[in-house]
From TrEMBL:
SMART domains (alphabetical): AAA (SM00382)
Protein's organism: Scrofimicrobium canadense
Gene Ontology terms: cellular component: plasma membrane
Predominant location: membrane
UniProt-recorded name of the protein: Amino acid ABC transporter ATP-binding protein
Protein transport is among the record's keywords: no
Gene3D superfamilies given in the database record: P-loop containing nucleotide triphosphate hydrolases
MF-aspect GO terms: ABC-type amino acid transporter activity; ATP binding; ATP hydrolysis activity
Amino acid sequence: MSSMAIASPLSIVNLHKWFGDNHILRGVDLDVSRSECVVLIGASGSGQSTLLKTVNLLERVDDGQIFFDEEDITAPGIKADAVRARIGVVFQHYNLFPHMNVMENVALASRKVKKVSKAEAQNRALELLDRIGLADKAHAYPDRLSGGQQQRVAIVRAIATRPELLLLDEITSALDPQLVGEVLDLVKELKGDTTILMATHEMGFAKQVADRVAFLHQGEVIEVGSPEQVLEAPIRQETQAFLSRVN
């Protein structure tokens, strides 16, 4: 095993993914350190969502490796469900179960994945809902919440099982601008508690939450650095061109 795999809880090595003739990921290399928040930026179609799905084993890798705490999770015979049980995921559409109230949504993974008792799972859910100011919504159904509230519930549902890694995919893209701040505050609060890899098109969001920013261009990570370096003084011409378009 390479020393790269040992250095970080998440290490992505020369990752390739094709969809038919479409070469989406073209040799992605990226390390994420423990308790670090790395933010993926790039034009639509650059591979950010596909990369997150390969890490969660929702998409099969065609070439390359992903090491999660030194284990090659892309190796044949790996038990995907066991890996996913250690990873929290939030997508851009909240995916809350409409027939369950807020507390039931948050408690579900703890009961099903971690096999904790109903009482313990509900106590954990209430503790998290209280932390994000939504304890009074515990018995409300998702359709009674604003978009920002639903997304915050989706995030605390993902962290209820105390995952070692949190994957966030465009979690603010379906929100009105005034609701983005609510979600931003929660992600900032989570920083340091867990290792986070997230994709966003919101450069302001990236600047506030990232320890490092990774720019994906045509399926490759071509520039990685601090938010100040990548977003304010990018080295690569491709990064400069992308930022001039989005800004």
